[in-house]
Design goal:
Shape: elongated
CATH topology of the largest domain: Rossmann fold
Radius of gyration: 35 Å
Structural class: alpha/beta
Length: 438
Amino acid sequence: MEKQIEVCPWCHKEVQVEPGRRHLYTCPFCKKTFTFTPAVAQAEGKNLAEKELRSASDRAGYGQERETTPYVAGPSVIRIGSRSPAQPSEVGAASPSDFVETTFVKDLADRALAYLQDGLHVHLCGPAGSGKTTLALHVAQQLGRPVVLIHGDDQMGTADLVGKESGYKRSYTRDQYVHTVLKVEEEAKPLWVGKALTEACQKGYTVVYDEFTRSRPEANNVLLSVLEERVLPLRGAHIPVHPDFRIIFTSNPADYAGVHGAQDALLDRMVTILLSGFDQDTEAAITQAHSTLPLVEVERIIALVRAFRDAGLKTSSASVRPAILISRILRVRGGHAYAGDPVFIQTCRDVLLSQARRTGTSQPDDPQNDETLLRLIQEICSAPLPTEYPLRKAALHELEPDSLMAELGEDKEVQELLLRKIREKGLAGKLLAELVKG
């Protein structure tokens, strides 16, 4: 008797059935029963084959890494690491409301933007805290193209930039449209992942290569032909570079840990802008934007940090971060940039003296550095602040109760109630301000 092969709907194993006859069968493998109907068996077999094809296409071989498209509509930023394929990131360039643009910063940004618009590539070179990465992302956003952010790393290789084969994509087709014919096709293709630079070259993205000297020089060799001949050598072929493709490099030559020398051939293909730090007005604007302290206090902190920096100590020569740290700590702890505020003095010690130790001074130099810092605090921050309400409130608490009560009147209950209300409502500063005006 002629037999036909049918797939068990429970275990999906092949079972022999009689063609042209509706009958109840028991699967010899899973021991479950199913009904075979010739009229619908052909359609069900086709649907099952399509389902298996979809599921098999989603399965990959051992070691597969799923590929993601490093492109999001609009000028977004994509961050990639040194060992993993490009992944979309929530980190974006500084928004217009967060980016501080003074005359000094605008001049730098305009110069870099003019070079990029003329088809050149820019290298921002400066010490830590000089605003290289923020400025690079800001300028990249001005070009109006999607931005790819790459971080240099000692473990990064050429494959992390242009891509590499990692795992396989397996495709399986099972066709039994004709019930007497079984057709099976299986195909495995290698996956190409981590191609951030490749897609940027093909689609004209703007690449910000942050701290590129942290990558080994041989990893950056592929950029030589990209910048000069405008072609990307890849897998025996040469991919033409999109006309809108640009790269902005950043590096810190003064750093001593994890930094490699850059090839002269690579540096010769870019315009290097040397950053040595901001002017005083720009530092004050950036610090105030990050801390929301009053400008008069921020200016004192900036003057103190710059004076301590110029006092002959081995401290950072350009970073604005110490001033930002001091300002933010004062805001959190309720301190003020005043020589009589112990919170301010201790904060300056914690931030500035630790920086002096980190950048080269030894422990025997700490007393001298501390003495220099206290002297500068007295010289720069000894004058009372225009609005020193918290300090006046503290002074009111330090007054002798008997003297204050005598001034308020003879009724003890009225005296205590009035003093308590002044303290609870925070009116001590206003009261003393009115007394000073009077």
